[in-house]
TrEMBL record:
<keyword id="KW-0408">Iron</keyword>
<dbReference type="GO" id="GO:0046872">
    <property type="term" value="F:metal ion binding"/>
</dbReference>
<dbReference type="InterPro" id="IPR005123">
    <property type="entry name" value="Oxoglu/Fe-dep_dioxygenase_dom"/>
</dbReference>
<keyword id="KW-0847">Vitamin C</keyword>
<keyword id="KW-0479">Metal-binding</keyword>
<keyword id="KW-0560">Oxidoreductase</keyword>
<feature type="domain" description="Fe2OG dioxygenase">
    <location>
        <begin position="61"/>
        <end position="160"/>
    </location>
</feature>
<dbReference type="GO" id="GO:0031418">
    <property type="term" value="F:L-ascorbic acid binding"/>
</dbReference>
<dbReference type="Pfam" id="PF25238">
    <property type="entry name" value="OGFOD2-like"/>
</dbReference>
<dbReference type="GO" id="GO:0051213">
    <property type="term" value="F:dioxygenase activity"/>
</dbReference>
<keyword id="KW-0223">Dioxygenase</keyword>
<dbReference type="InterPro" id="IPR006620">
    <property type="entry name" value="Pro_4_hyd_alph"/>
</dbReference>
<protein>
    <submittedName>
        <fullName>2-oxoglutarate and iron-dependent oxygenase domain-containing protein cp2</fullName>
    </submittedName>
</protein>
């Protein structure tokens, strides 16, 4: 039913040449679900479960829900990016298609968003109609080209104004940024190594 509504809306937009706001600057096709009167439903969905509390998942207070289309005469792929959200849900809606796999490459804060991907962070996912992928908004990802057919996905970006405000005053995001975690562990390793070297030096001086 939702897909039929989206198709009818797109047909109407095309026929009337009516200008509408697309879901994001990265997509030329797709519709915002609040325009279909789904605001209340999406709010209840956002508030029904708590995921990823370390990135604001326990106090989500706004959302951006939309449907995207990929394939013939539509967007083919989606470049490497992070979402404008704290928690994202991506539901495969169909139809018949090939390609379009999601590729994930690690969670990053703003400072480290362009840092190198570690081998253990490489994860690819093939969409299955009716199934959802839930991930942190700061989890870097993209979508490979849909090579045949048409792929339709429903996305819900969930946001936390409290978490966004708190980020302004933080410098360390090692509770969720993998690069911050690596740098913190390296600092700890260097600190322990320095202490050991100092102890060995003192023991050597005592022995002489």
């Amino acid at each position: 039913m939702l897909l039929a509504e989206v198709e009818n809306f797109e047909k109407w937009v095309h026929e009337t040449k009516f200008k509408i706001m697309r879901p994001s600057t990265m997509n030329k096709y797709g519709v915002v679900l609040d325009d279909f009167g789904m605001k209340t439903i999406l709010e209840k969905l956002m508030e029904s479960k708590v995921f990823f509390p370390e990135v604001g998942g326990s106090n989500l207070d706004s959302h951006h829900g939309f449907v995207l289309e990929y394939g013939i005469d539509r967007d083919a792929d989606l470049g490497f990016h992070v979402d404008d959200s704290e928690v994202s849900s991506n539901v495969g809606m169909g139809k018949q298609f090939s390609g379009g796999e999601l590729f994930f490459r690690g969670v990053r804060c703003d400072k480290h968003v362009n840092t190198e991907t570690q081998p253990e962070e490489i994860f690819d996912y093939s969409h299955v109609p009716g199934r959802a992928v839930l991930h942190r908004g700061r989890h870097r990802h993209g979508a490979r080209a849909t090579t045949s057919g048409n792929r339709i996905n429903l996305l819900l970006w969930c946001r936390s104004s409290v978490f966004r405000e708190s980020r302004k005053y933080q410098k360390d995001f090692s509770s969720w940024c993998a690069e911050c975690q690596r740098k913190k562990k390296e600092r700890q390793r260097q600190s322990v190594a320095a202490i050991k070297m100092d102890l060995l030096r003192r023991e050597g001086q005592t022995a002489t």
